[in-house]
């Protein structure tokens, strides 16, 4: 009887673990952290024009930011000693679009934002360098 009960419990645990593992969920099931391409990024920005819950973050240095950035972007320097703390001050429930020069720094920022509990973050995987090559607008 004990062996049978153990086998049933084990089977139920195995089925539950398998079903949960197949959902692809990690951490908070509500989090969306995704790398996107140039066209997808442009469409995301266009569809969120005027949305106060959509924030564009340029994580390049202030000097790079001043050379040209995506309109309405705020600058939070990845290399700043306070980068993590600056991110942590933001409203985690808003939707964020982040980018850097080539996608490297913003790619490294994604796990930080995930750990801090941001709910929805999109990363321009190609960076602003490719954004400019595609002829998309920047402001100074």
Largest sheet properties: 5 strands, parallel
Distance between the termini: 75 Å
Query: What is the level 1 CATH name?
Result: Alpha Beta
How many domain modules? 1
Kindly provide the radius of gyration, computed on alpha-carbon positions and rounded to a whole number of angstroms: 20 Å
Number of helices in the DSSP assignment: 6
What do the pLDDT scores average to?
87
Low confidence ranges:
10-27
Describe this structure in words.
- The chain is an alpha/beta fold and 140 residues long.
- The protein has six helices and five strands; from the N terminus they run αβαβαβαβαβα.
- The chain has a single domain, classed as 3-Layer(aba) Sandwich (Oxidized Rhodanese, domain 1), CATH 3.40.250.
- It has a five-stranded parallel beta sheet.
- The longest helix is centred in the first third of the chain and has 21 residues.
- It starts with a helix and ends in a 7-residue tail after the last helix.
Q: Strands, helices and their partners?
A:
Elements: H1 2-22, E1 32-36, H2 38-47, E2 54-58, H3 62-67, E3 74-75, H4 83-88, E4 95-99, H5 104-116, E5 120-124, H6 127-133
Parallel strand pairs: 1-5, 2-3, 2-4, 4-5
């Amino acid at each position: 009887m004990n062996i049978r009960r153990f086998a049933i419990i084990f089977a139920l645990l195995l089925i539950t673990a398998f079903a949960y593992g197949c959902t692809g969920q990690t951490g908070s099931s509500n989090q969306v952290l995704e790398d996107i391409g140039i066209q997808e990024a442009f469409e995301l920005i266009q569809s969120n024009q005027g949305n106060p819950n959509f924030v564009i973050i340029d994580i390049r240095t202030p000097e790079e930011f001043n050379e040209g950035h995506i309109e309405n972007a705020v600058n939070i320097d990845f290399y700043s000693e306070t980068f993590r703390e600056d991110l942590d001050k933001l409203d985690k429930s808003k939707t964020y679009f982040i980018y850097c020069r080539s996608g490297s720094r913003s790619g490294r920022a994604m796990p930080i934002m995930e750990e801090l509990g941001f709910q929805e973050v999109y990363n321009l995987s190609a960076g602003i360098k490719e954004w400019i090559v595609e002829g998309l607008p920047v402001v100074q």
